[in-house]
Amino acid sequence: MAGLVHPATTTIPAEASKTAHTKAEEKTDYMNLPCPIPFEELQREALMSLKPETFEGLRFDFTKGLNQKFSLSHSASMGPTEIPSQSAETIKIPTAHYEFGANFIDPNLMLIGRVLTDGRLNARVKWDLTDNLTVKANAQLTNEPHMSHGMFNFDYKGKDYRSQFQMGNGALFGASYIQSVTPHLFLGGEVFWAGQHRKSGLGYAARYETDKMVAAGQVASTGMVALSYVQKVSEKVSLASDFMYNYITKDVTSSAGYDYILRQCRLRGKIDSNGCTTAYLEERLNMGLNFILSAEIDHRKKDYKFGFGLTVG
Amino acid sequence: MASRVSLKTKGKGKGGKVSKGSDEKSAAQRLKEWSTWAMKKAKVVTHYGFIPLVIIIGMNSEPKPHLYQLLSPV
């Protein structure tokens, strides 16, 4: 019965759209649904608003463009770095890093490489083979043995779906698929298999978006349930909230935050159910000159992190 | 002499058996060893060569930047 109804709705908008525009908007064209966003970016609005890259200490980034497509970046950072400790208190040791990076960004090919003073390389490659097929590779290589990771992704974009296949070192394989069901609702699933740890998992995801809000949810057999909701209150203000629950370890974390995108600055703040508040300010002082302030206060662990920095270019 | 000969043939026989056994396994085992060797070499090549590769590709893209622009901070 549903199959009989749909062909009628697809032919009607063509004729009635000129006369009754609102009627055409109500009847959705199921043959022309929009292409969904990639599976890994399902919760990207919530991620961008609630998880800014906070840091501690001084940070200075300088990006020099040699070309429209080619640029070099120099980044220096000095500050305490946390090292994992067995006891409840956090142990920090002061470190200083210099990172050199080279970026080549073309419409079809993107190469990004970053190397640190201790020899760690972070490489990302994205190559669009055709309009629909993309190959991505991501690697973190270190001098220490057995600490390097690499991952290859093959993405295929269809008319109203996306599928992805991943291979990583340590016999890690994964596949994901996301489909547009209506112009506002996207559903997807993923499977993965980790050979080294002999684990496999299955996950489902759903995303509902309109002009004003985005609601996304993900459930995985590893025990993770993640829900997020972002409301765009106005052009400049968004409010976001996030709920993460692990039904195996019974861990719950919930956070709520705001994101103000103003002409000269972007201010993000959030508060967590772990007693952690974060704020992140990026202020545009001049063309190409940005000033960054980052603060993260963990009241429960009594860990206070403040950072400031400058980004040029 | 005879004992030595017999020892040699025994050794050969055993060696023959062992080599036959390793030939049977080595199709899959050889592939695994070669792929491990290839991944190790690929890791070293990527580690040292990725950034120079990006720089070479960038310096050859249009419009070609000059060599001094690589080093000067302006």
UniProtKB/TrEMBL annotation, chain B:
Subcellular location: Mitochondrion outer membrane
Entry GO CC: mitochondrial outer membrane translocase complex
Bilayer topology: Single-pass membrane protein
Biased composition (Basic residues): 7-17
Major localization listed first in the record, in broad terms: mitochondrion
Source taxon at top rank: Eukaryota
GO terms (BP aspect): protein import into mitochondrial matrix
Keyword Transport: yes
Protein transport recorded as keyword: yes
The entry's keywords: Membrane, Mitochondrion, Mitochondrion outer membrane, Protein transport, Receptor, Transmembrane, Transmembrane helix, Transport
One Pfam family in the UniProt entry: Tom7
Region feature (Disordered): 1-25
Family in the record: Belongs to the Tom7 family.
Protein's name according to its UniProt entry: Mitochondrial import receptor subunit TOM7-1
Organism of provenance: Hibiscus syriacus
